[in-house]
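Changelog-adjacent note: as of this version, every example in the card shows the full chain rather than a window. The one below runs 85 residues end to end.
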Amino acid sequence: MVPQLALGGLVAGAVPVVATPPVLGLTANRRNLAVMCFVGASVAFAVGMVLQLSGPYSGVMGVQPTACSLALVRYDQIDSDSRTA
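Full-length structure tokens:
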């Protein structure tokens, strides 16, 4: 789980990223609006990914715990192979 302070910092950092261009005086033409929509969507995607990956065994992006245990077994095999070589 993502700590509440880190999540708050992520959202607090995202707000200036999205709000800076209009504050600096970008005009509201189609090109600038398209760029701002892309930036906003990118920030929203990043925040969503952080929230999804905070619970690796549940949710849409969840994996089964057996996947991690199998990976650990394989890492141990790789380590033992490198020691014998």
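Structural remarks: The chain has two domains: 1-54, 57-85.
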